[in-house]
Design a protein that fits this description.
This protein has one domain (12-417): MFS general substrate transporter like domains (Growth Hormone, Chain: A, Up-down Bundle). With 424 residues, it is an all-alpha fold. The protein starts with 11 loop residues before the first helix and ends in a 7-residue tail after the last helix. It has helices at 12-25, 27-34, 36-45, 49-81, 85-100, 112-140, 146-173, 188-191, 193-204, 206-211, 222-238, 244-275, 279-299, 301-307, 309-329, 333-340, 344-361, 367-379, 384-396, 399-417. It is 78% helix and 0% strand. It has 20 helices and no strands.
């Protein structure tokens, strides 16, 4: 297959439409897996908060394992079939339908399995859609501006998460009478966040699907693409030394991203259980975090192109170590706000610069495969973070003990990142 080269000029219309997908899908991790529904599950559906925390962790661990296996395989196949948008449409639809099913989860332990299965499926589809979405960036942006577009899109994603979260606050959680006359006694105002996110994702994914150019469709039959894709993936993994720079980056990212994923998965549960935040406070905290994260991703976008993705990631993860350690030892809810909200300033840049780093390191004709490996690097040990949080929470009967694993992942990731070259 001939190598695809990066464009010499920007397709601004296509890039703006591409960026809207970040706006579309950020509603899911913000509302469902981090703040509102995660806390509802732990406090209102599970037998108790400690049990709910561990059950949530095990479900996300299994979902992460499925992503780790499927991401590189489907990425390798997609590099043979050419187009990425059909895959994005498929996985967006699955994520939306699984989110829609969360409406069924009533505040009763009988609905624990329904909640966990739906969230695990939705999380799998959400992450798989990102494999193909991320791989489109180098085909749309000139190399010198990849960092900016990655950062701007990530910032737009945080804005989308913020907007969705704000609407949930105003329309469902904070309202004395929720929209559509929902019954608070049956937690309908919290269960409705699933369908709300599903509609949000489906509607705002349309600009990318309709306006962003895609690679031409390859005449290779699916059976041939499957066989060739698996063979190429096996060869890539067997001879990863040929891509040593990318390999070191993937290993480093595997570790510090596990810290980020664990932080997202348990941030709302930790705030609710350790600092006694109610649902309204959780959403306000989530809004503040989205504001700072969006500002961080947007503001560091220029630094990515000028100072390098490695510099951006190093600064961001080091700051997360300092702030995260502080959040683990403080007792006051006020201090949690003071040190917790600035975490967002560095979460966004770490994510956006990681995407631009992979875009620069991946061979042009294997980008989707390498973004599949990128998904693998984010999920290969993803079961470890939630599982360790669940285990240590169970053993010590303390959420603080469980969340301490997050800082460890950040520190190890920083050490490994030193082996990655400064690619600009």
């Amino acid at each position: 297959m001939a190598e695809a080269s990066s464009p010499a000029a920007e397709d601004k219309k296509g890039l703006i439409a591409w960026s809207m997908y970040d706006w579309a899908n950020s509603a899911f991790p913000t509302v469902i897996t981090t703040f509102v529904f995660a806390a509802y599950f732990a406090k209102g559906v599970a037998a108790d908060e400690v049990t709910g925390t561990s059950q949530w962790g095990y479900a996300l661990s299994l979902s992460g394992l499925a992503i780790a296996i499927a991401g590189p395989i489907l990425g390798a196949i997609a590099d043979r079939t050419g187009r990425r948008k059909p895959w994005i449409a498929l996985f967006t639809l699955i994520a939306a339908l699984a989110s829609l099913s969360l409406w069924q989860v009533e505040p009763d332990t009988r609905f624990v399995m329904t909640a966990l299965i739906s969230v695990a499926v939705a999380n799998f589809a959400f992450e798989m859609g990102m494999v193909f979405y991320n791989a489109m960036l180098p085909d749309l942006s000139p190399p010198a501006r990849i960092g900016r577009w990655s950062g701007w899109a990530w910032g737009l994603g945080y804005a989308g998460g913020l907007m969705c979260l704000a609407l949930v606050l105003v329309g469902f959680v904070q309202a004395e009478t929720p929209w559509f006359g929902l019954d608070k006694d049956m937690a309908e105002h919290l269960r409705a966040t699933g369908p709300f996110v599903a509609i949000w994702m489906a509607v705002f994914a349309l600009p990318l699907l309709l306006l962003t150019p895609d690679r031409p469709n390859s005449p290779v039959p699916m059976a041939t693409a499957l066989r060739d894709g698996l063979a190429t993936l096996a060869d890539t993994l067997k001879n990863l030394r040929r891509y040593r720079d990318a390999a070191w980056f993937l290993v480093a990212r595997m570790i510090y991203t596990d810290g980020l994923n664990t932080l997202f998965a348990f941030g709302g549960i930790y705030a609710a259980g350790t600092f006694g935040m109610n649902f309204q406070e959780l959403i306000l905290f989530g809004i503040a975090m989205n504001v700072t994260a969006g500002l961080g991703a947007f503001g560091f976008a220029w630094a990515d192109d000028r100072l390098g993705a490695k510099w951006t990631i190093t600064v961001a993860v080091a700051a997360l170590v300092v702030l995260g350690s502080t959040v683990l030892v403080i007792e006051s809810k006020t201090l949690f706000w003071v040190f917790g909200v600035p975490l967002g300033l560095f979460v966004g840049p770490a994510q956006a610069a990681s995407r631009s780093m992979m875009a620069r390191l991946a061979p042009a004709h294997m980008r989707t495969e390498f973004f599949g490996l990128y998904a693998l690097s984010g999920k290969a040990t993803a079961f470890m973070g939630p599982a360790l949080v669940a285990l240590l929470t169970d053993v010590f009967q303390s959420q603080r003990a469980g969340m301490a694993t997050v800082v460890v992942f950040f520190v190890v990731g920083l050490v490994l990142l030193r082996r990655v070259p400064d690619v600009r």
